[in-house]
Write a structure and sequence with these properties.
single chain, three-stranded antiparallel beta sheet, alpha+beta, globular, 219 residues, 26% strand, three-stranded mixed beta sheet, 6 helices
Length: 219
């Protein structure tokens, strides 16, 4: 078990009122635990029946969905609370560019304008306490060092996107954000600019609650 939590220091995209750069910190993960990895970890460190464990998790997943659809929050003591998130549907113009919802009259908002946009999770205080217990933090880039929200040029962004899309065919804002080590704001700004160009090579489609970006002809 790791005894230190990785974090990185990054400049905020916008300066403060005095024009000075301010900084934030965010967690730097060491990858993602997959289902296969989880089962292998469980089998190695415990005596649980992994088949039973996965069946239980599937039942739990279905029950959470059912209760959320009944307009209830779902709380698991010692873990946290799940709650449905809804919002206004983002529509698209004829060229596929997203149009942000804009209502000045609440009476004009109907059920056709609202959708499920995800699920929020609020951890139980005891869960956070256990996470913090007997552990420290460390700057992954070294003491006093700051990661850079790199001032990429348009050519560099296009090169990255083309290389990624040539191999993977699609990309999300979050994937671009982490791949380039830039903020959510900057990643979305680049994607919005490139898809809005007059003769853009890129376009986006909504899949569930996520906007996925493609290059024409490379799907």
């Amino acid at each position: 078990m790791a005894d230190k939590i990785n974090y990185g220091v990054f400049p905020n995209p916008l300066p403060d009122a005095e024009g000075k750069t301010t900084y934030q910190v965010r967690h730097i993960p060491n990858g993602t635990m997959s289902e296969k990895g989880f089962l292998a970890h469980l089998k190695y460190h415990n005596t649980y029946n992994t088949t039973t464990m996965m069946s239980s998790l599937c039942v739990l997943r279905d029950e959470i969905i059912e209760q959320l659809r009944e307009n209830r929050r779902f709380r698991i003591d010692g873990i946290g609370t799940f709650q449905m998130k809804v919002g206004l549907i983002t529509k698209h113009d004829e060229e596929g560019n997203p149009i942000k919802p804009h209502f000045t009259d609440p009476n004009k908002i109907t059920a056709n304008d609202v959708e499920v946009q995800g699920v929020s999770f609020t951890p139980d205080p005891s869960f956070v306490k256990a996470l913090k217990s007997k552990i420290s933090t460390q700057n992954k880039y070294g003491r006093g060092a700051a990661g850079r929200n790199k001032p990429y040029t348009r050519e560099q962004i296009v090169e990255f996107l083309d290389n990624h899309l040539r191999e993977h065919h699609s990309i999300t804002r979050k994937q671009m954000q982490y791949a380039l080590n830039i903020t959510e704001y900057r990643a979305q700004k680049w994607l919005d600019e490139l898809t809005a160009e007059e003769f853009s090579k890129y376009y986006c489609k909504k899949q569930g609650t996520t906007y996925v970006y493609y290059r024409y002809g490379w799907e």
